[in-house]
Amino acid sequence: MHLQADPLLFGVIGYPLTHSLSPFLHNRVFKYLNLNAFYGRFETLDIRSALAGMRALNIKGFSITIPFKQTVLPLVDQLDPIARRAGAINTLLNKGKRLVGFNTDVLGAMMAIKEVMDPKGASCLIIGAGGTATAIARALKERGCQISITNRTREKGLALAESVGGRFFSERDLTGHNFDLVVQATPLGMFPNTDSWPLDPCSIKASLAMDVVYNPMKTKFLSGCEAMGSKIISGYKMFLYQAALQLRLFLGIDPPIHLMEKIILEALDESDGNSSKE
Ligand code: NAP
User: Fold this and answer.
1) Which residue, of 58, 140, 179, 277, is most buried by count of CB atoms within 10 Å of its CB?
2) Is the pLDDT of residue 17 over 60?
3) If you measure from the C-alpha of residue 184 to the centroid of ligand 1, how many angstroms do you get, rounded to a whole number?
């Protein structure tokens, strides 16, 4: 038994969390490393109480997910520079009741993209203007990309496009435009609503398409892009790398990345677009 009294406590907070593989992944890794640590699933829409609970119960670390990545910013005591530049937090550490925000989505996404292409100078379309879209748009901008944004709420999309010196497109205006990279950064297509997609892949031409949704491994959007001739990157790659970086922040250890990939692939393969394992 790797769990004894008073384990180190971690967890994911957000809503909804049915799709999240994080509890399954982190707990499997803790068990493999024989650590007295537990990672919980805390589905909530009350971010302030969740943070108060983190301090009061000495929860060491949270993964922060939809819809809190941006709203949590003013509620923390300190921000890591990457999270500050990204304008979003996905990892929160409790350092003696001081809450410090980090963002491992940024490097996780860049690592996944760099396996397939060097983004320097690429033309990139980001679908979405939320926490994940903002972090990825800013990181790609820092790496010399030309950024375009499309988003359901025009004002939010315009604001993000302006903040990265990019252009906003409504879906209608995308037809006929070519991009080196398209990143789908909305929750559309995520389990259990696997039939939804943010825009018709036929309306864009992309050499490479990445989805941030990782459950299912190949979303309807990625299948559509592949059918249109794009290379694709599954969201599971970003999930793997951001989780590995998060584990390093949580425990100060070198993450067992191959084991983590095996756990994720087995879980997604078995579930094939079903709910998370725990
Ligand atoms: P968020 O801040 O709430 O932003 C959501 C974005 O999606 C907004 O642009 C929103 O548009 C758009 N959207 C939501 N519902 C929509 C709908 N029905 N139709 C059209 N657009 C819609 O969320 P987030 O934190 O960025 O998370 C987005 C997704 O990324 C989640 O599924 C999350 O699980 C995933 N993610 C994956 C990884 C990974 O490691 N693979 C890492 C981070 C996040 P409006 O502006 O119009 O509301």
Assistant:
1) 140
2) yes
3) 9
